[in-house]
Amino acid sequence: MILSDDMISEGYTIEPVKEGDSDQYIKIRKDFLKPFVDQYYGGWVEEIQMIIADDLFHRTRKDASFLKILRSGETTGFLTFKEQPDQITDVSVIMSESGQEKALLGEFLHFITRLSDRTKKPVLLTVYQSAPFADLYREHGFTIYGTSRTHYLMSYNIEDTSGMGDYKNRIYAAGIGKD
Fold first, then answer.
1. Rg (CA), the chain
2. Per-residue buried b or exposed e for 109-126, using 16+ beta carbons within 10 Å of the residue's own CB
3. Which of 54, 108, 140, 173 has the greatest number of CB atoms lying within 10 Å of its CB?
4. Crossing angle, helix 46-63 and helix 22-41, to 10 degrees?
5. Are 155 and 91 in contact (CB under 8 A)?
6. pLDDT tens-digit profile of 67-124?
7. What is the DSSP letter of 115?
8. Do 19 and 61 contact (CB within 8 A), yes or no?
């Protein structure tokens, strides 16, 4: 991913995540996600979230494209996506407040949609329903094909999402939750 000249002139750069970035990832992830966890899951439990964040950091470094956003050398966020043989998934953006969140997310979505167009692979992602920039995904061509209690299930570059069904229908179709 290459940032625009505007973002570069403001001091932003993007680099691959390294092992030593774990502490910053955990801190920024907490700052970014805590309001959503509090809203949808009844509160942030530090011990549980630390385990989840540590596991996610190491798994993502191993099997996805994992980038950090820096401004004047200071880490301000993380971008993740996983290009699989038939689709692009695990799309994630977490950022600290910098005043440029919308612009950075827009550039990342532009990058992801161009990758999808070039490779002819659909993009599948989830966005918290109360996320402040949820509409930005639609502005970049993503459509909502389903919902969960907490998320919009979104896709890009899929002509027919009718077979994907609702989140709950997919769970029950897989036999999960049936007695």
1. 17
2. bebbbebbeeeebbbbbb
3. 108
4. 120
5. no
6. 999 999 999 999 999 999 999 999 999 998 876 788 889 999 999 999 999 999 999 9
7. H
8. yes
